[in-house]
Structure formats: structure tokens, C-alpha cells
Amino acid sequence: MEKLTELLNKLHFENQLTPDDIPNIDLYMDQVIQLFEHTFNSSTRNEEEKVLTKTMINNYAKGKLLFPIKQKKYSKEHLLLISLIYQLKGTLSINDIKTTLNGINENINEIDIDSFYRQYLDIAQSNVAHFKEDVTSRLTEIKADTKELEQVLHILSLVHMSNMYRKTAEKLVDQLTTT
């Protein structure tokens, strides 16, 4: 169990870009990438994995996952949306992300995105605590003939839970298109 606790801590689930991390000036693409690398680099699976690239940002802009960028500079609102995209892309398709963020992008001037994003951060922090408790408690429930088989069962359990969460999220995205 101690190994699992160490593993969970090494995953840095708490890493988040906060509104306070973002300078009060618009940033160029290289500065955006640097900020995201600094914030999320310890959360990547290995050193080769990129948090964010110019191609990714350009694809988000072309795919209309972000409201239009002005003079090649990204505002605080753009950065908060890119952070949400970063969180969503691990589970949802680009089309589902576009659908999810469409209302925000269309109403960016009417939404207090800072407040909305802070609500997301509070939820994320609570999710991390619940997740760690849940994973740890499930470990005690799993018994097999060998440690390797126990680990395989644990992996299967985590993937199954992940699939259920993903499918539920996809159905909620589908509901956004029908409202």
C-alpha cells in the first residue's frame, strides 16, 4: 500500500494552472508553451511527452476550440481554455471538446471565466482527494494468487472505472448538442 501512495503522489494530480499563475499581459505562443511545460511537466508519463506544442495550439485554434486569437497573442482567457483542453484531451475526442467548450467560446465576453475556472479547480482538488481514497481502498479489496496478478487486476479495475467515467462524460457531451 505504501508503494501505491508513493505512486499516486508522483503522478502530481494536483498540478493545475491557476489564474494567479498567468501574467496580466497577453502572451506569445512560445511563452504559452513555456508556462504549460513549467506547470504540467512533472505530470507527464515520460520526458519525451510534450505537454503542449505549437501544432497543438494551432490545431485548437483552427478547430475552433478557442475563440479567435488577436495579433498572435493569447489572453488569460485563452490560457484558461487551453488548460481545460489539456485536461479534456486525455479522455474526449477533439469534436467532443469543441462541443463541450462551444458555449464558453461563443459567450466569452459574458462569462466570468476566471470564476468558472476557479470552480473547476475546486472540483478538481476534491476529485484528487476522492480518487486517492478510492484507489487505495480498492487495493485492499483485490486478492489474487500472486502480486503480479493482483497488479493486473488493479490495472483492469482502474481501466474499467476510467471507461465508465469516459462513457458517462461522452453521453453528457451528447446532451449538450441536443439542448
From TrEMBL:
This is Cytoplasmic protein. It holds the Pfam family DUF1836.
